[in-house]
Every structure is written in C-alpha cells, then in structure tokens.
Amino acid sequence: MKMCVRTLCSILVLVLIGALWLSPTATAQVAGTNVNMVSGTTWPTGDPFLQRQNEPSMAVSTRNPMHILAGANDYRTVDLELALSGGAETGDSWLGLFKSFDGGLTWQSTLLPGCVQQTVPQCKDNGALGGKYQAASDPVVRAGTNGMFYYAGLAFDRATSPTTASSMSSIFVARYNDLNNNENTDPITYIDTHIVATGNSSQFLDKPAMAVDIPRAGASTCSFTANEPGTGPGGGTLAVPQSFAAGNVYIAYTDFLAATKGNSTPTHMMFTRSTNCGVTWSTPVQINTGTTTSQGSAIAVNPLNGNVYVAWRQFSSTGVPDAIMVAQSTNAGKSFSAPVRISTFQPFDQGTSPTSFRTNAYPSITTDFFGFVYVAFSARGLTASGDARVVAAGSIDGTHWTPAIMVDNPSQNTQSNPSGRGHQIMPAITFANGRLTLLYYDLRLDHYAGFYTPSATSPTGYGETLEAEGELALTPAETGLVFTNYIDDAGLTLRRHTIDLRVLELGIFPTVTLGPSVSVSQYAYGCCVNPGMPDIEQFKFNVPNLPLFGEGTEPFLGDYIEVVPSPLFVPNGSSWAYNFTPSVNPLFHATWTDNRDVVPPADGNWANYTPAVPLNTPSIFQPGKTVSCKTGQEGMRNQNIYTAQITGGLIVGAPGNAKPLGTTTFTNSSGVTETVPFQRAFAVEAQNVANQQIFVRFTIANQPTGGAASFLQFSQLTTLDLTIPAFSSVSRSVFVTSSNPHATVTVNVAQISAIGGSVVANGLSASAVLNPDATNPTITDPGATVSGVSNPDVTNAEVTNPDITNPDVTNPDVNLSNVHSYRGMRVARRH
Predict the structure, then answer these.
(1) What pLDDT score does 532 carry?
(2) CA-CA 20 to 30 A from 387: which of 66, 136, 298, 699?
(3) Is 525 helix (H, G, I), strand (E, B) or coil?
(4) Nearest 5°: CA angle at 340, between 339 and 343?
(5) Rounded to an integer, what distance in angstroms lies between the CA atom of residue 265 and that of residue 577?
C-alpha cells in the first residue's frame, strides 16, 4: 500500500528521534591543533616555492587508523615569475599526495605520479597518465577495506582560448595500498592508475565524486602486487602480493556538453562502477534527466543493503528551479531510479572576481547505521538578514525527504557571534560511531580578532575576548559594509573579509542538535606585536579573497572541504563492517584550505610574485634560467591545506598494530628441538587533547588463542591506571604471544575518576585493536638495510614550516589590507 508523504515524514521524525535514546550521551567536541599538511621546502617532497594548495580530500586507513592519505590541488611545480617566462607562468597545477603515520599530527608530501615533468622521479608514471596531460585537479580520496586507498581526479589540457574548453580531459583513479608492515619507512605504496572516462574537444568531464563499499555477497577478488621500495634485500624493492574480496567502487562526474563549461552549460550527470578494486569500469550511465545543468555530485552507500545514493546540485534555467536532487540505485549501481527533488532553495552562489572567490551551493551526503540518508547544503532566505545557513534534510528510503532544516543559527548565540551575522558555506557531512558530524566555513567572526587571557577552563589554556576590527570598529559600526549578500572585498577599505571553520555534531536526525558548534580554526597568538599594545592577540587570519590566482588577479579557495571518520570500515571477523558502533568519543579528521600563511606583496601588486628561494636558484622547469627573488615579493602565494582532529578529547592508537604471532623452533643447548611461542611487543598510546588532566584505565579486553597478552613482559597484568596531563600523551607496551599468527587483541582505554577509581559514566573512551586485519602483509625486516634516519616522517621539516617562520607573524594587519587600499592601518582599540 502506498503511504502518503506527510504520514511517512511524521513516522520518520518519530522513529529517528526515538532512535536518539539508543545513542550514548555526547561529550563536547574538541578540535585539535591546526596542522599545516604542506611540510618541508625540499623539491619535490616539500614546497620550495611556497606555492598554493587547495581542495583537499582525505581518508583513514582501514588497517591502521594512524595512517592517513590525502590529496589536494597543488601548484608547487610553478617556480618562475612572469618576467622570466615570457609573460606566462611555468608549470601548472597538478595533484599533491600527502601522508601521515601518526594520526594527522605530522605529514610528508609529494606529487601524484603522472605529472608532465616526467624527469622528476615522483612524476614518473608509464601508465594511464604518464605525462600526457598538462594539469590535474579535483581530488577525491576514499579508503577501501584491507588497507586500500582510491585517489580519483581530473586530468586535462588547458583551453587554447577563453571561449574553448580543454582539448582533452579524463577522470582517473590512482590506487594505493597501506601494507602496514613496518614502522621505519612509508608503508603506503602506489599500485597503478586507471582511466575511468575520457572526454573530447566538444565535451569536458569535471568534478568526480567517489564512494567505496564493503565486500558483499558474490564479491570478486581483488589481486595485485604492491612494490614497496627500500625494504627488499639490500634496500631494494620488495614485491608484496595481495588478494582479498573486493568492495565496489563508485564514481559520478559531470559531462559538460559544450565547448565551454559554466552554471548554464547543458550537462549529463554520469555514473560508473568498478567491481575489481578500480581496475576496470562499467560503461557510464546518465542519472540526471535531459541536459539540465547538474554539477557537484556526492555519493553515499546504504550500509545495510548496499543501495547507492547520488546527490547533486541542479542549476536553475527556463522552467527549472535551483534544487538539490538525488537518484538511487538498488542494484549496486547497475541502474538508477528517476531523480527525486530533495529541496528547491535559494542558493549561496558567487562568481570569481578580483575581490571575491568562487563558490556554489553543492550538497554533501552520508548514511547512518539505520540506512537513513542525510544531505547538507548552504541556502539563503532562512533568516531575516538573508545570510546563508547550512541546512540538512533526511530520508529513510532515499525517496521521501523531510524539509531542509537550519542546523546552526549563530544569530541566537551572542557569545559565539557578537554581531549575529555571517554566511555559512561549503558543508561536509559524515557519520561514524553513532554521530553525524558537519563541517563548514563560517563568517560569524568576520572582522573580529581574538584577545586572550590565561584560563584554566579553556581547551587552549587561554580565554578569548572577541573585539571588532576594521569597519566594525568604527563609530557607528559599518555593519552593512561587512555583512552583505556576498563575501566580496570590493566595498571594504580598512580590512578584508576573514573566514573560519566550525564543526557541529547532530543527532540521528538533523532536527536534533547535540552541539553547540565548535570552532575548528585555531590561529597563532602572542604578546606585544604592536608597540604600546601589550595584548596577547591573534596573529593570523584565514583571508579568503587574496588574489593568488589568474597571475595575481583572482582569488580562489576551492569548491569543497572534508570531514572523515577514523576509520570508515573496521574488520568484523573474516569480513568487514561500517564503523558505526556508538561511542561517546568518536574521532574525525577535518581538512580545509587556508590563507593564513600568505605573505602580501610589499608593493601591493599581487602579480609580482617570486618564490621564496635564494638568489639565482636554478629553475626546475626552465633549464638555463634562474629564479631571481625580489625582497618583499617572496612567498606571497603560500596558500596551504590544514587539518585538525575532531574528538571528545581522547585519542588512542597503535603506531605498529600489525605483527604476526605464532611459534618458533630452535635447538637448545642439549640438542633438543623445541617449539615455543615468540613474543611481540605492541606500543599503545593515548593522547589527551584537552586542557585538563585526566585519569585513564588501560584494559586488555581479550586473551589470544594459545597465548597471552599483558602489560608486563614476564608476568600477567591486564589493567593499568595512568595519568595523562593536559595536551600530553602516554604509551605502554602490550606483550602478546599466540599460536594463531593473526590473533586479535583489543586494548580499551577508559576515563576513570582517579588512579584506582571507577570508570566515569559516559566518560571518554577509545580502543586500539592489534592485528585487526588477517590479510595484512608480514612485517618487513627492520634491520640495517632499512634506514629509519632517512624516513621523511622522521626528518619532516616541521620547524621550517611557513606557519612558524612566516614573517606575517610580526605584522598581521598587512595581510588584511584591501585590494584598493594597502594602508594596513589598525583601527584604535577601545580600552
């Protein structure tokens, strides 16, 4: 019997709100340290020219949650100023590859194989890309089971004129695998790259979206050989064969059906799938209707039945409204139902200009442990001010949707938003451990600066006072110049716009907020920057409209940000499951584009860029030419990608969580052959990211078959109480023996009232699983042939990171000067 939409929605609300009682009490979210992911200045594992990176995407390894792979648009190959290159920049954007092996605290980076500079070892790729394209962009990184990573992107040639599209464009997927088999060298190895779809001179393929599922009944086998450099005999390459069940990989992308692309260009929204871990792809199918302009797709998978949902933005045209659309597949992506309109809305869109960055209202989508679907996007018209707000809609079946609900209205909270104004844009939504988590750019603190005093209760150790700056500090305040319909610097003369990042925790249904939202953005601050003003004050700001592109004429902040669970999939016996078990302390990772490290040009001309390198440094891309650094012009394009951990305050992990157990046979001094279990030591660490001391209890939750697990090497101890000071960590070894080489041991860490006390009800807790994946390759010999000293993870030039040495620290105001007025004047503060 068909149920009317109104009745279905009423039942949906009751079911979902009732489900909230199944979730544990939420703890306040804590945003960890903001970490610049672009580390080092050595080519090509660093960014020697302090160039631009944006549009980040990341995923957490399913073999070891401390291992993270990320990608971003990357301009580190641009090294010459216009004067030396005949009026055009040398090099072009490609895709950066970023890796962390400590849960996102430090990073190493390089370039994705296939870039046009084939003489550079990191670019060398004889496969699908192989230097065949001028540029690449639009990265999306997703984790699969068994340590798989899929890195999708767009490779293309530049247009020959402003009125023509690229002569060639392709959607591709590069494959990586986390071997998770050593702690001395990089275990995330490149496998290969495959083309998913290719355009031509009369069409342009754009903006891929991707999702990965767990292996399901009838899954094919994923087989490949990973070549791990530096771990074989004599330091050579070690071939590591892999074979396991394949989870489907899904990709959606836009096919622009004309020589130009734009918000009014006819499009097809295309979808394809791979059932063999990304080696081959099905013939793409169109999932939108007709040629209505559709862009900005996002994909989610129902964890219960594998149904696939694709959401996208429909742009208005004659007879067609601005809307968020969704299509559903009930046969694992083979075919799709007719598109359903989730919501018509007034979008927050703005185009590129010399004083404004481009952004369009695209959706983000996720599913929860009930199989319910959620979509978030940015919409206008929900408040009297007209400011854009992030909204979310929900559905139990992907067909019938609730109204889009505003989830965070800062005008109702004068403490976190003294002006009551500010747009919210670019939302990213995800689900794990019973928590819907929403990340977005927020402008409520536009034209405000933070001033700090010591505070024992603040997560950072200092209490913040917000003070109006620039146009808002005038008498009367020029609020109408700051908070306008668009984020445009054109009307400002004292200070540029500033933008921040916030995270919000929702209940199982978007009408229930477990927040309030929390600021993710954290900036350097200190004392006495300005003479006569001894305030402890904020040094840096994320300034979105700096003209770092188009040869110094256009701003760009990217089209998306991301928040991802740690991890999305977990082993479940001999199979895999979504990481949906409710927790009071889930861990997520946020990543975004940030201009805080940009150094403005001394003469006010953003086109006069020169890299921050010594005089007469040879050009990497123009043999025979040198880079002539100009004082005051160096490093000004230093746009970076940042990340932060989002958690309740406790992070637990094992740096080396995979070590085979078993027995060893030897002949004793009496000539008797003995077989005994050999013992492995696993380090388990717990990190307290909050500004208060906590007590925790380490507990070994299970004993392995035919052996033992203990915190002591030669006797049994399965519980251990420890103190973790504020912003500190502790680690302990777990000694394990077992007759089963793949025996799994779980170590739980729970907050307690005191040493020897009781477990705190709804307190912080987390776990580390040792040997979680039976398919994990055997660890490599960490002997003399493997030099841990040369590991980039050890020698990471964190101390030379521009976030620390950037001269912007000593003059925050110049960074905020308007494109029309470079006075850099600070409006006198009111004391």
Answers:
(1) 58
(2) 298
(3) strand
(4) 135
(5) 41
In the block, residue with structure tokens 């006797």: 715
How many C-beta atoms surround the C-beta of residue 227 within 10 A?
15
Among residues 695, 585, 696, 736, the alpha carbon closest in space to that of 649 is found at 585
Backbone angles phi, psi at 332, to 5 degrees: 60, 40
* 3-class DSSP state of 12: helix
Angle (CA) 561 127 234, round 5°: 95
Closest CA relative to residue 594, chosen from 519, 542, 636, 552: 542
- Full DSSP string of 271-320: EEEESSTTSS-PPPEE-SSTT--EEEEEEEE-TTT--EEEEEEEPPBTTB
Q: How far is CA 611 from the centre of its chain?
A: 27
Q: Cα–Cα distance between 112 and 243 in angstroms, integer?
A: 24
Task: Give φ, ψ of 807 to 5 degrees.
Answer: -65, -10
The maximal CA–CA distance of the chain, rounded, in angstroms, is 95
Order of strands across the sheet with 424-432? Answer: 424-432, 435-442, 500-506, 518-519
Cross-strand bridge partners of residue 683: 733
Helix then strand then coil, % of the chain, to nearest 5: 5, 40, 55
Structure tokens at 540: 């840096």
User: CA geometry: angle at 115 spanning 111 and 116, to 5°?
Assistant: 145
Helix (H) / strand (E) containing 479:
helix 479-482
- Within 726-819, residue ranges assigned H as helices are 792-795, 802-805
CA gyration radius, the chain: 27
Q: Calculate the dihedral angle through the C-alpha atoms of 598, 601, 607, 613, rounding to the nearest 10 degrees.
A: -70
pLDDT tens string 50-91:
899 999 999 999 999 999 999 999 998 887 654 444 444 556
Q: Sheet harboring 373-379: ordered strands across?
A: 364-367, 373-379, 389-395, 405-406
How confident is residue 233, by pLDDT bands cut at 50, 70 and 90? low
Cβ(225)–Cβ(240) below 8 Å: yes
Could you tell me the pTM of the whole model? 0.90
